[in-house]
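Same chain as my last thread, 492 residues:
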Amino acid sequence: MRGRYVALSYVWGEAQPHRTTKLNLFWYKLRIDPADLPPTILDAIRVTRALGVDLLWVDGLCIVQDSEKDMHHELARMRDVYRNAYLTIDAASATRVSEGFLGDRELYPIPDAVLPFICPSGKPVEQAANGTQLGMVYVTVEEDAWYVTYDDPDDPEVIHTASRGWCLQERLLSTRSLVFTSKTLKLRCHTRTHNVGGAYHYDGLDAARIPKAVFHPDHHIARYSDEWKHIHKTWLNIVWDYSRAKLTNPADKLIAISAVAEMFAPFLGEDYVAGLWRPSLLHDLLWQTDPETPRGRPAEYRGPSWSWASTDEPVLWRYPSLAGDCLAEVVKCTVTLKNEQLPFGPAIGASLILRSPILPCKWLGDQDVDRRTPMRWLSVDYSFPAPFALRDKDFQIDEDPSLSEVSEVWFVPLLIQKVDSGSSWLEGLAVTRADPDVWPRSGEQGQGDVYRRVGITWCDIDWDTVLFEDVEGWDQLRAMLARLPKVDIELV
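reply #2:
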């Protein structure tokens, strides 16, 4: 697209019979009848014209929706569409495209006075006299009105686009956005959000933003430097936000965040593997799900079991700071992409080979217990030599329905970090044998057993500070762990 243009970010929420298809493409190039367009797009046209801009980009119209070739071509350039737009219109108040977003808004808080206001037309007074529009200004004089922020991103009544996966990517990529919420109008850029009209806004409620450095791919940042770690932590925070968002088509899990991943790639590493980065892979593997909202894994393959993209649950990282000593080694990691034109898109197979210790686990108590909450019912079946002792072993399982069929579980330790005097924290994956018909592999096929992730494990390792001083005990522990037998484990 040449020239200055505005992009639209909105919730589809329903079928769009007006969308561009191969059948109507010829006629749409000649003219699109406004009577065929839904209210949200018509409102976006009005705002675009009011801004003095001639061009508007709308995905449902600018992408041929039933052409896989055009879809892949446009998805590959999605980063540039929103990044280069003069402005993005965020139709945050509309739950579906047929609602529109320029209607009357709920008065909040309740006003104490209503005053007339002559809306500016942009023309000299003598020219605008006959076309003057009269509006209203609502005034509140409450002493406690300062706390009204209008902007809780978790409130679906305020910002509907905040809960949608595609819209989150569009918001992150946009240089600036006009956000039409159900209670106010916001101007958002990469550094802050401002409520238009001066309404109070608490910026601390905003979701993660892309660091400034990421918009300058030629800027060199040393790997594992503090700035690099900040960029990596921001990526994890974005994934946390994104994993809570909804997708109409769950198969879009990786593609709907791919343009953001593409921006991070020059800094976090070009080797992007199903939502994780090769330089920080051992840390990235240690995502955990929310035990309070178990949704399990989708029925259809969406990515390897070790990727957060394989689950519908919100994910987070308990220790996102890249701290700790690595106990495992990445031998090989291969991902088979669904489309080679989309290197940050969906995978149809994957294989990760780790060289690591693998420790057996056992179920505790009655074998008929509800294994959907197994933190009490699983234990590492291994004893470290004295004076070291495993304590407070916690398991969090990613899924619930299929877990009832899991009879064998192993612990694959990945990281160890010192917590305090006489104590350290061991973190790794809980795995079980994988069914190759369910979890497709990638690359050359090995001969040994193949495993899949079923959860994450944490263990405290204590030692007697009477026998070992703090520093000596930590060194002895690391030496002992380094002597554990290691094998090559393939995870799918």
